[in-house]
Design brief:
Blueprint (H helix, E strand, L loop, with lengths): L8 E11 L5 E11 L4 E6 L2 E2 L2 E2 L6 H26 L2
Antiparallel strand pairs: 1-2, 2-3, 4-5
């Protein structure tokens, strides 16, 4: 029997800890969904309400959190690119 299996969609989770100004460990998490069929991907925050991050208010902690989120987005984007275009 011959089997022709082809991935169509996959979900991944990227997480990274960050330390707030009170020296407490926080976690940022994003979800990556890759659609292999049409070679697209989407990145969304794991902790969200109405599409907005909910685990940080503003000020100094916000700057630290957003830097961490940007690093996660870069990691997820690099991973998606490798999955879609370097197979």
């Amino acid at each position: 029997m011959e089997c022709n299996f082809k991935k169509t969609e996959a979900k991944f989770k990227f997480s990274k800890n960050w330390t707030d100004i009170d020296d407490k460990t926080q976690k940022a998490t994003i979800d990556l969904i890759i659609n292999y069929h049409n070679k697209t991907f989407s990145i969304t925050p794991d902790n969200q309400v109405s599409g907005k991050f909910t685990f940080c208010q503003g000020g100094a902690n916000s700057a630290i959190m957003w830097r961490t989120v940007l690093e996660l987005i870069q990691e997820a984007t690099d991973f998606a690119y490798k999955e879609l275009f370097q197979q």
